[in-house]
Amino acid sequence: MTRIRRTASAAAALAFTAAATAVFGFAGSASAHVTVNPKEATQGGYARVAFRVPNESDTASTTKLEVVLPENAPVGSVSTMPVPGWTVTTEKRKVDPPIEVHGSQLTEAVSKITWTASGDAAVKPGQFQEFPVSLGPLPQVESMVFKTLQTYSDGNISRWIDEPAPGTEPEHPAPVLTLAAAAPEGSAAPASAAAVASPDDDDDEDGNGLAVGLGVAGLVAGLAGLVLGGLAFARTRREPVAKA
Asked: Which residues are paired to 113 by β-bridges?
């Protein structure tokens, strides 16, 4: 019986390990590509996003990143944040119709951003790097697809250029920024997380205070009962016993 139990436990452990490997192993391989974070922003506004670049090679380092901005969704203002050890360049293209930014009509827009590592700044195996960008005003489209090229020190290039397709997971997915429609003017802004959480906190505190108050009241009532019982017993002892 003991041997059967040990065999069953070992089989269960192996099954769990295999399932975990399948689930987490697949998740790891599926997520090991260039992404844009956060993944959502609002149409018409400005957003600070970062292109997150994991290094997938075991022997080579990432030395260059090229991000192409979508032609169907030009952005008038594009600025980059300095990344230590990396140089950045931008390319522009003509846009028609022009893009309006703060009352000005722009006939050019950034079409490509390229980061290049210098010295020992390359993204080494087992590491990742983020490349922040400010974009705006964001176009009136549902999403922006940023086709990206990741170059390694051994000359290999990972082409993250596959656009999303319903019901399938692209083999080399491009980073996608989903754009939500702006809230109508005059509508109430959504409550913050702190504001939403505070009523619950107050309810907890009120509930705890009520419980404590009821407990104290019960204790006082019990003591009062003991005192009244003692007084009644003492009075009974003092009263003379009636004769028959």
From this structure: 67, 90
Burial label, 141 (beta-carbon count in 10 A; 0-12, 13-18, 19+): middle
* Strand pairing category for 176-180 and 40-42: parallel
User: Residues 131, 65: contact at Cβ < 8 Å?
Assistant: yes
Going along 102-235, which residue ranges are E strands? 104-117, 128-136, 143-145, 147-152, 157-160, 176-180
pLDDT value at residue 225: 53
Sheet holding 147-152, edge to edge: 86-101, 104-117, 62-68, 147-152, 157-160
Beta bridge mates, 159 = 149
Question: Are residues 124 and 60 in contact, defined by beta-carbon separation less than 8 angstroms?
Answer: no
- CATH class name, domain 35-179: mainly beta
* Integer Cα distance of 88 and 109 in angstroms: 16
pTM (2 decimals)? 0.65
pLDDT tens digits, 177-194: 999 998 877 665 544 443
